[in-house]
Amino acid sequence: MTTDASAITVRPARTSDVRGMQRLIEPYVQRRILLGKELVTLFEAVQEFVVAERDGELVGCGALHVLWEDLGEVRTIAAAEGAVGKGVGHAMLDALEHRARHLGLTRLFCLTFETDFFGRHGYEEVDEHVVPPEVFAELLRSADGGVAEFLDLAHVKPNTLGNTRMLKRL
Fold this sequence. Notes:
Mean pLDDT: 90
């Protein structure tokens, strides 16, 4: 596989990409780096995803989930085994940050084991006080599991063990 990052194309995901996205995510699930996502969940969230292609081959995916008026979460970034370290994650994160700015977001959150990767992109470790109490109370109403992880609720603690909470100001 080429190492030329300029050969990577990042575009919005389509429903025809979803099964390929699930294949990209699965090795990370097996290694307990990402939580597994049901196929239906990926279809429901396809509009949040971008995919990376190289020579017409799907080599990465990642998502941006809006949490609040100024805050989004970068989720489910996965690169194909042969594409790791070759600019795929960087290209997807750039595209997701661009999308976040376009939506008017000023902060991006991630919950990750990949602290070096996100640190190189301007993310810093944060404590649990990322939103004021009134926003926290509103976010408690969300049925989204990722929002519960963001809020660091007790019932999702087994999913987040060892992960680092990181934030970037755009």
